[in-house]
Amino acid sequence: MKKMIFFVVIIMLAGLPSMLFATGAEESDSGDQEPIVLKFAHVLQTDHPYHEMALRFKEELERAAPRVEVQIFPAGQLGNERELIEGLQLGTVDVSTITSSVTANFVPGFKVFSLPFIFRDADHLFAVMDSPIGDRMAEELEAVNLIKLGYAYGGSRDLYGSVPMTNLEELQGRKVRTMENEILIDTWNTLGAIATPIPWGEVYLSLKQKVVDGGEGTGVSFRSMKFYDTATYYSRINYVFSWHNFMMSGSTWDGFDAELQAKIMDAAEIAQDYERELFVEQEAALFDELTSQYGVQVVSPADIDLWRERVLPVYEKNADAVGGMDLIREIMSY
C-alpha cells in the first residue's frame, strides 16, 4: 500500500512543472489582451463625412481587434486643428483628421496642396494622394511623430458670403475668412480681398457679427456648420481640392506590435475609401439642396478664367517654399 501511495505522489510531482507552465502561459495570454482605448478627435459635426469615417474606422478596428475601443470626439471637443496636431505629437490625442493647410504649419511639404487651381478635380487629387508623391508626404509626417493612416477628401473649396461675391469686381475689398495658411492668405489678397484668418470654431459667430463678409471652404462643411443662416450667397470656384491627413500619434503607434499595426492600417484604408466615396456623393447632391432647402443663391462666376489668371503670381512667389516648380508641374501632370 505504501509503495502504491509513493508511486502516485511521484507521478503527481512529475506533472507539476507542466501544470505550472500551462498556468503561466494562460496568465501571459490574458496579460496580452489588456484593453486599449484610442481617442479619435476631429473638428467637424456628426453629419460630416469626417465623422462617418471615424465611425467606420471604429467599426472595422473593433471588429478586427476586440480589445481596442475607439472613442470619438467630434466638433472640436478636444481642440482646434492646430491643437489636435500638437496633441498627436504629444500623444494626448491618438487619431485625428486634419486639413493639409493646417498640417503645413508642422510639415512644410504640404504647403504645395494649398496652391489655387493646382488640381483639376477630385479624381486628380486622389491620383496624387495614391502616388509616390503621397508616399513622400507620409515620410515627412513620420519625421514629426505623425503616422499616416490615410488621405481623406475634404471637398472642393469655394467662396460664400453675406454679400454677393460672384465676380472679381464684387470681391474687391471684402473681408474673407481663411485658414491659418500663408498661401491661402496670399491667394485671397492677390485676388483683391482682405484675407482674415479665423479659427474654424469661431467662423459662425464671425459671420453673424459681420467681422468678415464671407469665407472660403467646402460646401459640405458650409452646410454642416449652418453657415447658410447668415451667408446666403455661394460662389462655386473650385479653387482648392482639399487634401486631408488621417493620422495617428507616432507615440501611440510605436506602442503596438506589428499585428495590431496591420489591423489598424487595414481598418484605416477601408475608412479612407469610404470617406472619399461618401464625400463625392454628398457634394454631387449638395448645391441643389442648399438652394431648395436653405435659400442659398449658388452661382458659378462667369469670369473664373480671370480668377485663375490673377493668382498666377502666387505660384511664382511661393514656388521655392513649396518644393519648386518641378514639383508643381509633377502634381499638375497626373
Provide an overview of this structure.
It is a single chain. This protein is α/β, with parallel strands linked by helices and 334 residues long. It has one domain (36-332): 3-Layer(aba) Sandwich (D-Maltodextrin-Binding Protein, domain 2), CATH 3.40.190.170. It is built from 15 helices and 9 strands. The chain has helices at 2-32, 49-64, 81-90, 100-103, 122-129, 132-142, 168-171, 182-191, 203-208, 219-224, 250-254, 258-294, 304-310, 312-322, 325-332; strands at residues 36-41, 68-73, 95-99, 146-161, 175-178, 194-197, 214-218, 233-249, 297-299. Strands 1, 2, 3, 4, 5, 6, 7, 8 and 9 form a 9-stranded mixed beta sheet that branches. Helix 8 links the parallel strand 5 and strand 6. Helix 2 (49-64) packs antiparallel against helix 12. The radius of gyration is 26 Å and the shape is globular. The chain starts with a helix and ends with a helix. The model is unreliable at 1-31 (pLDDT under 50).
